Each structure stands twice: as structure tokens, then as C-alpha cells.
Amino acid sequence: MAALDVSGAGFEARVRLPAGAPVEDAAVVLEPVSGKVPQPKAQASIEQRDREFVPYLSIVQKGAAVNFPNRDTLKHHVYSFSPAKTFEIKLYAGQPAKPVIFDKSGEVALGCNIHDWMEAHVLVVDSPWFGKTGADGIARIAQVPAGSYRLRVWHPRQKAAAALQEVVIGATPGRRAELTLDVSPREPRHKPPADSGSY
Questions:
Q1: Rounded to two decimals, what is the model's pTM?
Q2: How far apart are CA 103 and CA 115, in angstroms?
Q3: Per-residue model confidence as pLDDT tens digits over 3-35
Q4: Which domains does the chain have, with CATH numbers?
């Protein structure tokens, strides 16, 4: 594990492909080496909109409640067979009666039993300090307590796991961490026109 010194209560990481292009939808997680980890407080939401899951990637702390509001005028059937969370919300419209609790850390792939092109991913982590890269490949994590952390980067389509780095957060302004991750392009999936009458 390589060491990276970063000072400051805010942390920023830029994730790039080996060729230099920015990587969108990468999870950047700071895992404390020691000390008590705060329990999850915020809920998350993964919508179905225009027959797609939004967002494509969500990061939640273990124990978090996730809502699955259906914003479409047709019904969806959300499911996951992933070891970290196996569940299904049978054919429904609107807001399900209760959220899904993600109580085990790991990677969770989501699908819709009605629309097989729909996909999304949830990374369930033990730490509350995480961020997701935007189109510019940059993730920002605010209000990180001073201390030692393991820096983890993950992407649903990564070709291989990235090596962990050791990060030391101090009390003065920090610098950006530069990370490289080899990620496969997202394969296009056929989505029938909304007015095709198929589903």
C-alpha cells in the first residue's frame, strides 16, 4: 500500500483512464484505519425515470435506507441477486411502502424484471466518507476528520481492482489525489421507443 500525504478536512481525487481521459461514476472511499465510524444518517434515492435507473451508481454507508421511487407512468419490478443484498420490489408504480435497508457492505447490481436494459449499481461501504466522480473525473469528500485512511477507488466496469493507498488527512488545505483506473466502456443496450407499445 503506497502512502499519500493529504492535508485538510476536505479531500479531492481525480480518476483517469490509463490513456488520460476522465472516469465518470467512480466511487472514491476513505476508510478510517482506526477509530469509531459514525452511523449512517442520510437516506438515498434511486429513481426510475424514462425507463432508466437514476443514478447509474449510488454509494451508501452500510445500514442506509434506499428509496426506489418510480417516476414513470408505467410499472417497474426492481431486483438484485447480489450477495451483498438480495431483494425484489414486485411490479409497482409510485413510491414503495418502505425503503430497502442495505445492511451488508459490498457491490450490488440492480435490474428491472420488466425492462431488461435497465441497470444500476450500489456500492455499500463501511465508511461515511465517500464521493463519486463526475464527467470531469473528480470526486470531492467534505468534512473528513484528521487521521489516517485507506483510499479505495471502485467502478462497476473496472477491469481489475485498484491498489489501496494510505492517506493522511491533516488540518490545513489539501491537494488532489491523482488515481488511474482501467474501465471498460459502457455497452449500449437496446431500448424500445416509449411509444412502441412493447413495454
A1: 0.89
A2: 26
A3: 454 444 689 999 999 999 999 999 999 999 988
A4: 1-37+131-183 (2.60.40.10), 40-126 (2.60.40.420)
